[in-house]
Amino acid sequence: GAVVSQHPSWVICKSGTSVKIECRSLDFQATTMFWYRQFPKQSLMLMATSNEGSKATYEQGVEKDKFLINHASLTLSTLTVTSAHPEDSSFYICSAPRSHPGDTQYFGPGTRLLVL
Amino acid sequence: DAKTTQPNSMESNEEEPVHLPCNHSTISGTDYIHWYRQLPSQGPEYVIHGLTSNVNNRMASLAIAEDRKSSTLILHRATLRDAAVYYCILRDVDAGNMLTFGGGTRLMVKP
Fold first, then answer.
1. Considering A23, B19, B25, B29, which has the largest number of Cβ atoms within 10 A of its Cβ?
2. Under a CB-based contact definition with an 8 Å cutoff, are residues A96 and A4 in contact?
3. Which chain A residues are Cβ-neighbours of B45 within 8 angstroms?
4. Tens digits of residue pLDDT in A87-103
């Protein structure tokens, strides 16, 4: 079964609204989680590293004020797309390493966002 | 993470073995070779990883060249459910847990 879940699985929103996406590790604790974005027919692009108890680390070119990340607990990280625009429409995927650093990554099923 | 090179796409017949190549000529001594695959409209899933020796698990086998500059993911009997994008990723365990995805290989399986 899935060890990382995401909610919602898909969302449609109006331009200008904010959308929150949750990523949960179901049976393990994750001090670090990763957020990726994937546009159609493209590969995954790392957006940011979510760190429990501290600020997220954003990749170059990703606006931290637009993509708010909160790692509220050892099993939950949230990504909020603020003032969403049509160009933010994408497939958002989170991942978490299961145990110790160096372990394999477990990915969530993804959240498809469509901004009208 | 060091760069990897994979063919954009490959085709296979159902029930036949598939060999998916990956070149990583700039691999360093602390880089592990990881393979993930992504089925349509899903998040990636772990397939296999290795350092120097060949590896086998229930999903696939990983053959690593002696000089570690290339590797091959082997699916012993392709099924229609194996149609996916396969990503070969080098990960330096000393540099954190993040994964850098390249273009991957889109595997098409014909019935």
1. A23
2. yes
3. 107
4. 999 999 999 987 654 56
